[in-house]
Amino acid sequence: MSHRRAVLLMVCVTLLWSIAGVVTRQLDSARGFETTFWRSLFNALALIVMLGWLRGPAALWRTLRGGGRALWISGACWCVMFTAFMLALSLTSVANVLVTMALAPLFTALGARFALHHKLAPRTWVAIVIAGVGIGWMYGEQLGAGDARQLLGTAVALGVPIAAAVNWTLLQHLFRSADATPPPDMLAPVLLGALLSAALTLPLSLPFAATAHDLALLGLLGVVQLAIPCLLAVRIARVLSAPEVSLLSLLEVVFGVLWVWLLSAEAPSAAVLGGGLLVLGALAGNEALALWRPGARSLQPR
Question: Quick one: which of 166, 152, 190 has its CA closest to 63?
Answer without folding.
Answer: 190
